[in-house]
Structures are given as C-alpha cells and as structure tokens.
Amino acid sequence: MSASNFLPLDANSVEAEAGAPAEERLISGDPKFRTWNVEERDGGLYAGIWESTPGKWRVEYDEWEFCHILSGVSVITEEGGEARTVRAGDSFLLRPGFKGSWEVLETTRKEYVIKL
C-alpha cells in the first residue's frame, strides 16, 4: 500500500521540538517555542504547527512562510513599517527579506508552510 498524498497538520502525529529565540535576537521576556514539524521535504519545504509563550524577538526571513493563527495574539512589526496584530483566524504570508520583530502577547499557536 502506498502512502497517502493527503496529510493533516496534526500535532498529535509527531513529537514536539522545544526551542527559543537565539539569545542575540531576544528583545524581551522569556519566550519558549514548541514546533510540530509534520512535513519536511527535500528542496526546503516544511509544514506543521508552531507555538510560543509571551516574549519579543527580532526576526529575519530568507524563506517564504504562510501562517494561519490558530490561537493567541501576536504583534508582528516590519522594520520601517507598521505593527500588525494577528489573532485566531488570521492568515498571512511573510516574504523573503522580511525583517522586524515578533511579539507574542498571549501564547500563540499557528499552522505554517515554509518554502526555502
């Protein structure tokens, strides 16, 4: 039997990986990450679920990332741009070259698809 090409993004299907922002990127707080990387393909494609506790850190994207917020509240601010508050139900794309900060106000969980 061959594997299905339908893959639900289910946090219960994989072990969570623990993480945190790199120390040099941390702006405030003590955010802790949990990532359930459900799909990883050659060529740099990743999909899964990510969660962070409150805190603020600098971000810099070299990849495309589609995000859909499942719960919580975060503020994403682009360098030289406006602060955008995202919450459950919001979807957005961060393009390569995005630089700024991500601040989690209430523990935030998102679905993501990353393409390098």
TrEMBL record:
InterPro entries: RmlC-like_jellyroll, RmlC_Cupin_sf, UGlyAH_Cupin_dom. Transmembrane segments: none annotated. It holds the Pfam family Cupin_3. Residues 40-112 form the (S)-ureidoglycine aminohydrolase cupin domain. This is Cupin domain-containing protein. It comes from Mesorhizobium shangrilense.
